Amino acid sequence: MEPAFKRRTALRGAAVLAAGAAVPVTAAAADEFPELTWRASGPGANPPPFRMRIISGIPAVAGYGTVVTLGPVIVQVISDRVFPLMLRDVGYSSVAATVTGAVVVTDARGLSGRLPVTIDFPRVTMPTIAIETVLTGTATLTGSPQLPAVRNPGPMTIKAEPGATGAVTVSKDSGVTRSFTSTITLFPPNRDPRVATIEVR
């Protein structure tokens, strides 16, 4: 999925997509981002699937040849309504998590590059009733991404890789905590994993 790029082109692409310099872009509205469904499993726990969507941080339109800043990307996770009571039934009242995964960015010519991503979800207290619960996190790029240069007009897609890992910490009201690793997979596994599209003009 990732063709070999000339080193100079790859490094230029990394600067174009990951640099922090601000440029005029058109922000995407929250309802323009697709919603994906994921399953998480951990030691003795298999909660119902949860929904995820990007709220902000990725532009809808970018100028041809300009620097595009990705982030800070705000991500929301919406749990199934039974999840808060599942957690409270085993004595825990709050949850925090750090998710590590990756996205693949592909331009209009089909050139692509992989970006490792970390999403931090601060601690959230669970409701005491069965209700969908929202966790809001911040996604940041990690590692040294190699990307094609943004010099090809047309749609540039950002797709999530279908697997990720969560470092989860659950807490009791007494302050006692438990940490474990969760395996996270796209559900269903053959669905379109696109999380955003940037139109390069």
Task: Write up this protein.
Strands 2-3-5-8-7-6-10-11 form an 8-stranded antiparallel β-barrel. By secondary structure, the chain is mainly β. It is built from 2 helices and 12 strands; from the N terminus they run H-E-E-E-E-E-H-E-E-E-E-E-E-E. It starts with 6 loop residues before the first helix and ends with a strand. The longest helix is centred in the N-terminal third of the chain and has 12 residues. The radius of gyration is 18 Å and the shape is elongated.
Mean pLDDT: 81
**Spans of at least 5 consecutive residues with low confidence:** 1-25, 144-149
User: What's the total number of strands?
Assistant: 12
The neighbouring-strand order within the major sheet is 2-3-5-8-7-6-10-11
User: Please, what is the oligomeric state?
Assistant: single chain
Radius of gyration: 18 Å
Distance N to C terminus = 24 Å
Give the percentage of residues in beta strands.
over 45%
Largest sheet: 8 strands, antiparallel, barrel
| Shape annotation | elongated
| Range of helix content | under 10%
- Structural class call reads mainly beta
Secondary-structure element order, as H and E? HEEEEEHEEEEEEE
Number of helical segments? 2
List the helices and strands and how they pair.
Elements: H1 7-18, E1 25-27, E2 36-41, E3 50-56, E4 59-62, E5 73-78, H2 83-89, E6 94-106, E7 112-125, E8 134-141, E9 154-160, E10 163-171, E11 177-186, E12 194-200
Parallel strand pairs: 4-12
Antiparallel strand pairs: 1-4, 2-3, 2-11, 3-5, 5-8, 6-7, 6-9, 6-10, 7-8, 9-12, 10-11
